[in-house]
Design a protein that fits this description.
With about 475 residues, the protein is of the alpha/beta class. It is about 45% helix and about 20% strand. It starts with 6 loop residues before the first helix and ends in a 10-residue tail after the last helix.
């Protein structure tokens, strides 16, 4: 006859999970890890105990959510919060299985012998493993008005859906994205390669070195552990495929959406990942994968909700959207997923152009504003176009990993045709190393090295909280 786990055993485990109750500090291993830049944005929301909203920290697997929670705990301690007022639990720990968030909070209070019901910071990690967590969390926010709660999880799609359903007015969602190129350089203290100028926001006097780092970022840079752990970097396939994709595609999404044929989903994702940056159609995907169009459409919605892919839709030469979105481009949210699944790229690899485009699109970590598209018509195509709130064309960008177009302006005829048709006086082209401005028939073409432009987009999204496409480099 089995015996259920006693409350005393659970409380002893809780005490072990919160070493700062005794030491006044987080563990040394977490202290040694670099802080995500996003900590400074999330922390004020967490620290303000008078703001009666729980923080729901979302993000793909292995982007550093648990580490950022530990760093937030240290900041609370540094700011004078008593250690025994800070509770941390990882809900996927087996001993906590099936216990409600409220009961666990009460166990934490019992563990520190403090039942004052005020001034506590309760931090739940991997909360999606508990059914009904969103109802519990809302109840906690309503009941304990002088306490602050945070719930985090790797199943971003699940958390977002549950947060929207039950947390209106009670939850503040915070998305922690993979590393942007901007953050990648800053965390390694190599952003000194880039500096500001009067004429344009950023430039470099060593584009060759910057490009080396950029290719490394495409191959390995999306996940903090891959950046700072050389052993993981030497075997990215094991880290990304086994620890991230397998758990997302074979466990998180099937569990959330009731997907029965997980191999079918995995096969579709592999196809999309290999062709990141290419144009797709439901008909074409259905034909090549032998999966029903209706099923593919659902799978793409799930993959996008899980923050694994981004879809960009097509407009015509005048910037008008199509009534039926038959064609679209699909990008990975992190180019290093593609390198890990197949093979790392070199600067001159055949696939580098598509992954440069993928890297640039993935930098825009803000919620979609519905105004970024690609344009294609019978005789031309432009990689990225932007529309105003009134859906009028406002900008155009060609993404290239080559310098040849600076001397072959005639090869940019699609971009120039789009500009003329929509009265745009300036457009942008990314290059490999060339930086400068040229003019054709009254249209200014600003050439910017791709690595610089990718850095710029990540910088603007992080610092200005605005969509970088709405304020291109001038």
């Amino acid at each position: 006859m089995f015996t259920s786990i006693s409350k005393e055993h659970i409380i002893r485990r809780i005490q072990g999970d919160n070493p700062w109750w005794a030491t006044g500090s987080i563990e040394d291993e977490f202290k040694a890890m670099p802080e995500r830049l996003y900590l400074d944005q999330m922390f004020p929301i967490l620290e303000d105990i008078n703001l009666r909203r729980a923080v729901v920290l979302m993000g793909p697997r292995r982007v550093g959510k648990s580490v950022m929670i530990r760093h937030a705990i240290q900041k609370l301690l540094n700011n004078g919060v008593y250690g025994r007022k800070i509770f941390y639990l990882s809900i996927d720990t087996p001993i906590y299985t099936g216990i409600s968030l409220e009961t666990l909070f009460e166990y934490c209070q019992e563990a520190v012998h403090d039942f004052s019901n005020e001034g506590f910071y309760m931090l739940y990690d991997e909360v999606q493993s508990l059914k009904g967590w969103e109802v519990d969390l809302k109840s906690l926010v309503d009941r304990f008005r002088k306490c602050k709660f945070l719930a985090s999880g790797s199943a971003a799609a699940a958390l977002k859906m549950k947060s929207n359903e039950s947390g209106a007015g009670r939850f503040t969602d915070f998305m922690l994205p993979p590393l942007t190129f901007y953050e990648y350089l800053v965390l390694q203290n190599i952003d000194k390669l880039i500096y500001r100028t009067v004429k344009i926001p950023f430039t470099t006097n060593d584009i060759e070195s910057l490009n080396i780092h950029f290719i490394d970022y495409i191959n390995f840079g999306g996940y903090p552990e891959m950046v700072f752990n050389r052993n993981i970097r030497e075997n990215p396939e094991r880290f990304i495929k086994n620890d991230i994709l397998d758990k997302s595609l074979l466990r998180d999404l099937p569990g959330l959406y009731g997907i029965s044929d997980v191999q079918e989903l995995y096969r579709l994702f592999a196809t999309v990942a290999y062709n990141s940056g290419n144009e797709f159609s439901l008909e074409g995907l259905s034909e090549t994968s032998q999966i029903l169009k209706s099923t593919i459409k659902k799978y793409l919605e799930y993959l996008e909700a899980a923050y694994l892919i981004k879809l960009h839709y097509r407009v015509d030469m005048s910037g008008k959207k199509f009534k039926r979105a038959n064609f679209f481009k699909i990008y990975l949210t992190n180019p290093s997923m593609r390198s890990a699944l197949f093979s790392p790229i070199q600067s001159d690899s055949e696939d580098t152009g598509n992954l440069v485009e993928t890297a640039l699109i993935s930098q825009n970590t803000l919620p979609k504003n519905g105004r970024t598209f690609y344009a294609r018509w019978d005789k031309g195509e432009v990689d990225l176009v932007t529309l105003s709130a009134l859906l009028k064309p406002t900008g155009a960008l060609e993404i290239k990993w080559s310098d040849r177009y600076s001397n072959r302006l005639n090869e940019l005829k699609s971009l120039l045709s789009y500009a003329k048709a929509n009265n745009l006086t300036s457009v942008f082209v990314t290059s490999k190393t060339f930086e400068g401005e040229k003019e054709v028939e009254g249209i200014k073409i600003q050439f910017v090295p791709s690595a610089l432009y990718v850095y710029y987009v990540g910088y603007v999204c992080f610092h200005n909280h605005t969509d970088a496409w709405s304020s291109p480099i001038q």
